[in-house]
Automatic annotation (TrEMBL):
Basic and acidic residues composition-biased segments: 197-207
Signal peptide: 1-29
Domain YncI copper-binding per the UniProt entry, residue ranges: 30-183
Source organism of this protein record: Amycolatopsis thailandensis
Region (Disordered): 157-216
Keywords: Signal
InterPro entries per record: YcnI-copper_dom, YcnI-like_sf
Record's protein name: Nuclear export factor GLE1
Domain of life the protein comes from: Bacteria
Amino acid sequence: MSKHVFKRAGFLAAAIGAAGLLSAGVASAHVTANVYGPQPAKGGYGSIFFRVPNEEKDAGTIKVEITVKPEYALSSVRAKPLPGWKAEVVKSKLPAPVTTDSGTQITEAVTKVSWTAEPGTKIAAGSTEFQEFQISAGKLPTNVDAIEFPATQTYENGKVVEWNQPTPASGEEPEHPAPSVKLAEKSGDGHGGGHGADTKATSEDSHAASSSSDSTARWLGGAGLVVGALGLGVGAGATLRARRATAGASTKSSNTEGTE
């Protein structure tokens, strides 16, 4: 092949890569549900972050609302305080009681969580800013592999965008996908997120740190004894030399006096 063919192939690959990045950027510019750390487990509790980017050129985002499906029966949902935003958690009576794995019947559950910007606060107009809104929720359902949270984004110019379209089985992303989080299989501790592993790791780290500190202390103690012994040796040597010098001076003096 000629050099021109390689150059053309290189330009084509670069163009395809740039197009891919641009399309990824457009596709990712929507409200998403994210998890930092271990994935929440079925039947446990989890901390979820809703990442909300601003998309309106001349208007900022002033309200975000998350809908919690009644069939999830999330009896405990807490919103983390966010400066400049007022959070509200709404509980509603369920159309029909939901029975948990332990046999408990839940008749009321959280159905909405919203954040409203206080005066002077918003996600700025344009496409350079986003905000994250966090909740802690549980117990998570055990009969689904993922949970969806349809979201509503309200702009200061009155425009409302619904992010509520489920992702089909084919995996092709819709225009306005609903934020969703995959659930890990149910864990033994009932909380999800691998807390037991974290505790074990912390314990092992602490033990290692303790052993290291103990070894260091012993090494320093031994070094101190060696230095002390050396000091005593030097002191004893100096004392012995001083005594010898004094004895020599006394002998010389005696011999001088006898000669006179």
